[in-house]
Specification:
This protein is about 30% helix and about 30% strand. The longest helix is centred in the C-terminal third of the chain and has 21 residues, at about 380-399. It contains eight helices and 20 strands. The chain has helices at about 15-25, 100-115, 135-150, 175-185, 240-260, 300-305, 315-325, 380-399; strands at about 30-35, 45-50, 50-55, 65-70, 80, 85-90, 95, 155, 160-165, 190-195, 200-205, 205-210, 215-225, 265-275, 280-290, 315, 340, 345-350, 355-360, 365-370. The chain is an alpha+beta fold and about 400 residues long.
Amino acid sequence: METLASDSQRTISESEYLSFLIGSAVENHFSVAVWRLPNNPVRHLIISRKNEILQPQFPLEELPEGFIVAPFDAAADRIFMKADFSFTFSDNSLKAPENSLEVTSTTWLNAQLNNGKRVTKKFHYQTYLPGTTEKERYLNAVSNGISEIEKGVFEKVVPSRTYQLSTPPDLDVVDVFQNLCNNYPDALVSFVSTPECGSWLGATPELLVSVEDKTIFKTVALAGTQAYTPGTNLKSVGWTQKDIEEQALVERYIISCFKKIRLREFEEHGPKTVVAGNLLHLKSEFKVDMISTNFSQLGSVMLDLLHPTSAVCGVPLEPSLKFLQTYEGYSRQFYSGYLGPVNVKNNIGIFVNLRCAQLTRDNVILYAGAGVTADSVPEQEWEETEMKLNTLLKIIVDK
């Protein structure tokens, strides 16, 4: 790409800035995260010179501004990207700096623009390739899950699968990111690229932990899936007993986490039908006043208790995990882990990493799962994963 400084009279667009900053980060072996929160037009980008590995139970509330990325395996390392440089975009332009970090960041950006260096790299690459899950293998996993449920081993399990396609030669991660923002306003849309993790792109609807201004904690129970037809009256949508029970299991899991810490003062709203891109889900919201309950580190405590949630693993946790390790046949890595901004604008917003894709030099790997209960039908669970994969597939392929 041409250097943006080559035309000083031209207004630089948001997408051009994002492309330049991502490329500059990769060229310098830095990590970069770009995101847009649900129902919020503002885009954010941070660059981290060196990532930190968070110690177990380290309180998020004590971290500086940054972005966290964690794998599905709760025992594996959580990566924290401290914001060495921070940028905010609104109305297709870079916003004026509002704090000392953004002032320093703007100075660094101007130096990068003025050095005349061409930025050619797109993102960090990772070598692990899980390949594509064969349909027969997935149907077998679902069937075995139903059998284990009937035996009383667990109540629910969430087998997942992958789909691999060749990386389109003209793939532009910023274009895909912007299209995801336009198509999925209710999701956390993100692109994360680090030397250690490679590059991940996604549009997830599932909030895991939110802390607003260090005073209000929120989480959600999200389960049940069916296709969404634009214009559908959400109040008239019907749900199967299987979907209702699956969502209730996630609700009960969250409440059980509250009970473990003897927290009884919480609000629960729902379930209600919500739109998530091309899909419908059942959603319940939980809210806690952290001041009145005197629980200043509730976000960190609940994050450790909730992950991995019953919505991505199963109930109970241990036998579900053991089943997935036996039947999935690949490492989930960061799929169904979590990610999100930490202490950015005094808020924490961490989401389950769903509807995501791993980008490599030659391939794109998409991930999706479906909740299996006693009432599940294997072929229907396969179709559910097809719908979920299509969330990103149609944007990456069609752009």
